[in-house]
Amino acid sequence: MAQYDLIVIGTGPGGYVCAIKAAQLGLKTAVVEKRATLGGTCLNIGCIPSKAMLHSSEMFHESGHSFEKMGIKVAKPKLDLSAMMANKQEVVDANVNGISFLMKKNKIDVHHGTGKVLGQGKVEVTSEDGKSSTLETKNIVIATGSDVMPLPGVEVDEKQIVSSTGALELEKVPGKMVVVGGGVIGLELGSVWSRLGAEVTVVEFMDKILGPMDGDVSKQFQRILKKQGLEFKLSSKVTGVEKKGKSLNVTVEPAAGGDAEVLQADIVLVSIGRKPYTEGLGLDAAGVATDDRGRVKIDAHYKTNVDGIYAIGDVVVGPMLAHKAEDEGVAVAEILAGQAGHVNYDVIPNVVYTQPEVASVGKTEEELKAAGINYKTGKFAFSANGRARAMNATDGFVKVLADAETDRVLGAHIVGFGAGDMIHEVAVLMEFGGSSEDLGRTCHAHPTMSEAVKEAAMGVFAKPIHS
Ligand SMILES: Cc1cc2nc3c(=O)[nH]c(=O)nc-3n(C[C@H](O)[C@H](O)[C@H](O)COP(=O)(O)OP(=O)(O)OC[C@H]3O[C@@H](n4cnc5c(N)ncnc54)[C@H](O)[C@@H]3O)c2cc1C
After folding, report:
1. Per DSSP, what are the bridge partners of residue 232?
2. Could you tell me how many helices (H) and strands (E) the chain has, helices first?
3. Domain FAD/NAD(P)-binding: where (predicted)?
4. Left if phi > 0, otherwise alpha if psi is -120 to 50, otherwise beta: which for 102?
5. What is the pLDDT of residues 286-299, one digit of tens each?
6. Helices of type H across 121-183
7. DSSP label at residue 151
8. What is the DSSP letter of 257?
9. How far apart are CA 115 and CA 127, in angstroms?
10. pLDDT for 443
11. Which domains are present in the chain?
12. CA 406, CA 356: separation in Å to the nearest integer?
């Protein structure tokens, strides 16, 4: 008799959510986690600490820059970085302890140590002191997440040359910071240190920031960040970083080749992406197949090529996002409990938590064009929204894209204050196959930022009122 119905390896948002759902559905469940605390990348060194730092740095910047315009006179704010870091750690602790509580509440066994798949139904757990034990189970879910993608020739020491992990732990505000990679993580952490006083230059290989996001969004967002003080070198690549005592010489070349220039920096943040994490899992020996990018190969039901072994989250194909991992965790638990688990990959929101925020769901204009889909666009700027004016938050816009024949909404893209929350009304609409007319004829409270979503939708099937 197997000890468990399910063992989940990794307790990030994919793994812990899967375990909770499985336990709720009556499966005897255990998790294996090699980190001292539960919650994975997301809660320990990702989503949560970065959002704590984004919020604190935003408050610091706001109090120094926009209070006076609203008639609030305060002394110039002083930064106490160690207190800011302590606050961030408190936030992390509260979250990871919350996961431990949820494991107990749902009667899920927690095994601390590195999990290795010995084959169908067997997981070896090796704890820090080197002791191993073997657990038996009917099913295994691999949810081991991802790790920082290295930049060839540039060694991360997490002091001067940092990954996102080190960038969340800096002991002082750098004078100059070079961010390698203009994706979500680089722009969020670049914004944090820029608001706290660093001169930040973002070097991006592509000719736009935010890679696959809608082109309009990338352009406007870059303008906004530039206004906030960030510098950009697009179509450029970092080819080397040389340590000169406390300073760094960063060699930057045009992506297409050409003359190099050297930027001086105190800190270099390498944020060129993340790669699936499968080290020490024993996949080869267990016969579990991976693809050409090292991701665990799965079928439409998250099953690997080995019966009883499944995989979800950052370690498999798809966007590396916490909520995608969570939804896959729920889906695979439901499948294992005999239900019909499913994730709709066409409706996964993507948010950049800067100020203003950027949020998108569904297709971009570029994707629709490439697919030859005939579409209509409605756009509305926050500069014409009453609430945005009242809050001095007029940067940005909402863009709604709908099928030209059926009016079904295919995508929405928002740059603006609270975009990350606003996007969800479009996500729900899209889940129900709704049209721009459904959205535009839904009564929206006034005055709200969300009225811009309604107006953009009206711009697709009729005309907006306020522009
Ligand atoms: C700085 C930063 C900010 C981010 N911000 C956001 C955000 O705002 N929103 C968002 O959606 N996403 C964000 N992400 C991405 C998000 O963190 C990931 O998509 C998410 O954590 C993936 O979840 P997961 O469960 O697949 O894996 P992970 O969270 O990576 O968890 C995997 C866990 O498995 C454990 N593990 C690995 N191998 C073994 C083993 N052999 N045995 C036992 N345990 C093992 C690891 O220790 C880890 O705890 C951010 C990432 C970073 C780095």
Report:
1. 202
2. 14, 22
3. 4-329
4. alpha
5. 999 999 999 999 99
6. 164-167
7. B
8. -
9. 9
10. 98
11. 3-148+275-336 (3.50.50.60), 161-272 (3.50.50.60), 350-461 (3.30.390.30)
12. 32
Distances in Å between the alpha carbon of 161 and those of 42, 154, 204, 316? 21, 8, 17, 28
Ligand 1: does its nearest atom lie under 6 Å from the Cβ of 277? Answer: yes
Alpha carbons 348 and 166: distance in angstroms, whole number: 29
Residue-wise pLDDT for 333-351, tens only, equals: 999 999 999 999 999 999 9
Q: Does the beta carbon of 385 sit less than 6 angstroms from any atom of ligand 1?
A: no
Q: Is the distance from the beta carbon of residue 349 to the nearest atom of ligand 1 less than 6 Å?
A: no
Kindly give the distance from the C-alpha atom of residue 389 to the centroid of ligand 1, in angstroms, as a whole number.
38
Percent helix, strand, coil in the chain (nearest 5)?
Answer: 35, 25, 40
Instruction: For 27-65, write each residue's pLDDT tens digit.
Output: 999 999 999 999 999 999 999 999 999 999 999 999 999
Q: How far apart are CA 310 and CA 5, in angstroms?
A: 13
Residue type, 21: K
Q: How far apart are the C-alpha atoms of 11 and 110, rounded to whole Å?
A: 9
Question: What's the token pair of residue 367?
Answer: 């994707």
The whole-angstrom separation of Cα 419 and Cα 396 is 9
For residues 398 and 187, give the distance between their C-alpha atoms in angstroms, rounded to a whole number.
20
Cα-Cα-Cα-Cα dihedral sign, residues 280, 10, 54, 417? positive
The per-residue DSSP string of 372-419 comes to T--EEEEEEEGGG-HHHHHTT----EEEEEEETTT-BEEEEEEEETTH
Q: What is the pLDDT at residue 185?
A: 98
Structure token pair of residue 117: 């798949």
Distance 361 CA to ligand 1 centre (A): 21
Closest-CA residue, ligand 1 atom 38, reads: 144
Among all chains, which residue has been given the structure tokens 């990871």? 96
Cα separation of 365 and 368, whole Å?
A: 5
Helix 13-24 and helix 81-105, axial crossing angle in degrees, nearest 10: 30
Band of residue 20 on the pLDDT scale cut at 50, 70, 90: very high
